Amino acid sequence: MPGISSDLLLTCGWPRVTKFILSACAATVAEMVTFPLDLTKTRLQIQGEAAIKQHGPGGGPQMAYRGMMGTALGIVREEGPLKLWQGATPAVYRHIVYSGVRMVTYEQFRDVLGRSEDDTFPLWKAAIGGMLAGAVGQFMASPTDLVKVQMQMEGRRRLEGKPPRVHGVYQAVLKIISEGGIRGLWAGWVPNVQRAALVNLGDLTTYDTVKHILLRNTSLQDNSLCHGLASTCSGLVAATMGTPADVIKTRIMNQPRDMNGRGVLYTSSIDCLIQSVKGEGFISLYKGFLPTWMRMAPWSMTFWLSFEQIRKTMGISSF
């Protein structure tokens, strides 16, 4: 809101609106910087599924992509460098909703419960708050996540000679609604929410906890170094906890649907989990872990550094 200071927003009773806007700005910066890694991760997660559908477990030709660098270079070589940002628009839309809601929810949860007498926020409270915030934020943003995943796969579909399913965000939304109704926009919301709860258990909980441990027990000040160390820890924990749910979420959201909007490959997240492990082994649940972590680490660091700096610039207390 140009020309309106944060003090005015806060005194007018809009602290949540202010924090929502700041969270959305920081998330947009982080998303655009790291989006190519998200596209790479999605392609890696989908390719094993495609081979099984065509040739059955253990069969089929060599995978099109081998590893994160091979996938990224293949996309640049076959589709062009700008395709590394295919699906970035709905991804930004998603994070405006997702990150804005999760950050406001977590802070509200923390304020309601309050810190202990020694000014600490117990780990169990932070864990509950992180999971709750992630689940609420992701449920609200689930339609944009569905559009993002489908748009990310369009470049690969064209190379395989398949007709494009979507040509843009608006057309993708209309197509999803025409096939599955309004409910179709929330296809795959269960694994989506499960994944977000686990990721935020790792991200929000770890960042908040590690940051305040560093401030209490070391000589570090509440500055970029402290924020960078805490965000590095949060990115690693979030990737470790969230990758299996991310694989399942991506496969459920990318599967074709029948006339009633039901998936034709998997009946539930449990069914997808069983089929993936049975067809490709347990390690398939960590397919794309490296690009997931290599994306979450810089994403987390970019987000938290930006978020804390924006709050400081706007005169709002540190997270």
UniProtKB/TrEMBL annotation:
Membrane-protein topology: Multi-pass membrane protein
Predominant location category: mitochondrion
Swiss-Prot/TrEMBL Solcar repeat ranges: 18-112, 121-213, 222-313
Cell compartment(s), UniProt: Mitochondrion inner membrane
Keywords for the protein's UniProt record, in alphabetical order: Membrane, Mitochondrion, Mitochondrion inner membrane, Repeat, Transmembrane, Transmembrane helix, Transport
Domain of life: Eukaryota
The keyword Membrane is annotated on this UniProt entry: yes
Catalytic activity: chloride(in) = chloride(out)
Pfam annotation, one family: Mito_carr
UniProt entry tagged with the keyword Transmembrane: yes
InterPro entries: MCP_dom_sf, MCP_transmembrane, Mito_Metabolite_Transporter
GO CC entries: mitochondrial inner membrane
Subunit text: Homotetramer.
Function: Facilitates proton transport across the inner mitochondrial membrane and may dissipate excessive proton gradient associated with oxidative and metabolic stress at neuronal synapses. Regulates glutamate-induced proton conductance in astrocytes, shifting the energy metabolism toward aerobic glycolysis and lactate transfer to neurons for ATP synthesis. Can transport chloride ions with lower efficiency. The transport mechanism remains to be elucidated.
Protein family according to the UniProt entry: Belongs to the mitochondrial carrier (TC 2.A.29) family.
PANTHER family referenced in this protein's UniProt entry, alphabetically: MITOCHONDRIAL DICARBOXYLATE CARRIER-RELATED
Protein name, per record: Mitochondrial uncoupling protein 4
